[in-house]
Design brief:
Elements: H1 3-35, H2 51-80, E1 87-94, E2 97-102, E3 107-108, E4 111-114, E5 119-125, E6 130-134, E7 139-143, E8 149-153, E9 159-165, E10 178-183, H3 185-193, H4 197-200, H5 207-213, E11 239-244, E12 247-252, H6 255-263, E13 268-270, H7 286-297
Parallel strand pairs: 1-5, 4-10
Antiparallel strand pairs: 1-2, 2-3, 5-8, 6-7, 6-9, 9-10, 11-12, 11-13
This protein binds copper (II) ion (CU).
Copper (II) ion binds at residues 93, 130, 165, 167, 169, 173, 176.
Length: 300
């Protein structure tokens, strides 16, 4: 049993009940139209109430909706009860990407999971409300800043599935699409152990990995093309026109400016770009920031 079957069963039962009711109403209606047509019954007749019928049409629908509720409740309980052997993965939503962190230290922008083992996602947001949605597994949960939410699922077949943000979170909302990659258990074990990006990512060679892993490249390019934010190519020591407290000024993009753009992004807003850069002090450690800046310096 997995979440997709649970949800689909409840859904099918509700659809079946709805279709049966619709058919019953339409058939009865057509029957009455013919049976009590004007040519056959020119004189309308006053019909007294019937207690028996009234009880029937209260009790039967009541039983139907209560059983739908109980069935749904059972599915809900199933989906909230995380199996104890579930693999814990931390999921972070941010404008505008996802990042996943494993207990091995591995970080990824795709959700990589082993086939056959339940996965527990511990979800939060680094900035605004997002919602983590994996249609193939019929699971969805809000990512709320300052709060942890969770869900679990059982990826029983290997393959690739879509993962979306399903809560409008700004201009780049549609960029928050990534993949769930379900690997055979053996391949996953290898993936899980290798490339401890977090520890390896200090020093300038980790900068490129970090830009990707931290989601920077969703909004910034490294090849000069324009995205939601300014490109990193040729940024270091270039002249930048910014708005500082609403006043226009020109500055040189030195190391201090690059640092400030991450720790206090609203201090100087680059002209022509929306002020949507989130403050990343919780997301990026001091060493990681230094590695990122070293890397940006090299992007001529
Ligand atoms: Cu979002």
């Amino acid at each position: 049993m997995n979440s997709a079957q649970t949800v689909d069963n409840v859904f099918l039962v509700i659809v079946a009940v709805s279709v049966a009711l619709l058919a019953a109403v339409v058939v009865t209606m057509l029957f009455f139209v013919v049976r009590y047509r004007r040519s056959r019954n020119p004189e309308p007749e006053n019909i007294e109430g019937s207690l028996f019928l009234e009880i029937i049409w209260v009790v039967i629908p009541l039983m139907i909706v209560i059983s739908i509720f109980l069935y749904g409740w059972k599915g809900f309980r199933f989906m909230r009860a995380v199996p104890p052997n579930a693999l814990p993965v931390k999921a972070f939503g941010m404008m505008w990407s996802w990042s996943f962190e494993y207990e091995s230290g591995r970080m990824s922008n795709e959700l990589v999971v082993p086939a056959g083992r339940p996965v527990k996602l511990i979800i939060t947001s680094r900035d605004v409300l997002h919602s983590l949605f994996i249609p193939a597994f019929r699971i969805k949960e809000d990512a709320v800043p300052g709060m942890q939410t969770h869900l679990w699922f059982l990826p029983d077949k290997t393959g690739q599935y879509d993962l979306f943000c399903s809560e409008y979170c700004g201009e780049g909302h549609s960029s928050m699409i990534t993949k769930v990659r379900v690997l055979p258990a053996e391949d996953f074990r290898k993936w899980y152990k290798e490339g401890r990006v977090r520890e390896a990512a200090t020093g300038s060679k980790g900068g490129a990995e970090l830009l990707k892993g931290k989601g920077c490249l969703v909004c910034h390019s490294t090849d000069g093309s324009r995205k939601w934010g300014p490109t990193f190519k040729g940024l270091f020591e270039s002249r930048v026109t910014v708005l500082t407290a609403g006043k226009k000024r020109e500055i040189i993009a030195d190391e201090e400016y690059l640092r400030r753009s991450v720790t206090a992004p609203q201090a100087d807003i680059v002209m022509g770009f929306p002020p949507v850069m989130p403050q990343e002090t919780d997301n990026v450690s001091e060493e990681e920031l230094s590695a990122i800046i070293e890397h940006i310096k090299g992007l001529k």
